[in-house]
Amino acid sequence: MSSIKFIVLFGMLLISNQLMAQSLAYKALLKGIYDKDFPVITIEGADSMEHPVFLDTRALEEYEVSHIRNAIWVGYETFNMESVRKLDKNQPVIVYCSIGARSENIGKKLQQAGFKEVYNLYGGIFHWVNEGKPVYSKEGKTDKIHAYSRSWGIWLSNGQKVY
């Protein structure tokens, strides 16, 4: 009986170490991608804001699989300022993509265009989903999440990956 307990305990320890390592690796990845001079906002920070506008900077195919509730799709390759012309430049804007690289670039363009309060969502939609936050498609709440590619999909630990 004690050997079974040892095997279970060892297995749990191994799994927790793998999750921690992935978390540390993910944090290192994000630190290497983000510009230290561009503001990043955590999920908790976003939740505490009153009426922020979420802008999804991923490809339309990714957005259509799922997105943060009420997010406006602005794209990345196809982004232009016309897509945000109706937004109040004084309202808080949170940009996001899969992990935050594309969204930071769009966020900088918004700042240059006069938007006063622009933030990049820490960890992007991957971190959002991994933290158990809901995502939506045109049909409503979903557990599907576009993983961008198989190599980037390793950073998703929750949700049903779509490629």
TrEMBL record:
InterPro entries according to UniProt: GlpE_sulfurtransferase, Rhodanese-like_dom, Rhodanese-like_dom_sf
Keywords: Transferase
CDD domains per UniProt: RHOD
Protein name according to UniProt: Rhodanese-related sulfurtransferase
Native source organism of the sequence: Cecembia calidifontis
Residue intervals of the Rhodanese domain: 48-137
GO molecular-function terms, A-Z: transferase activity
Gene3D superfamilies: Rhodanese-like domain
Domain of life: Bacteria
Pfam families: Rhodanese
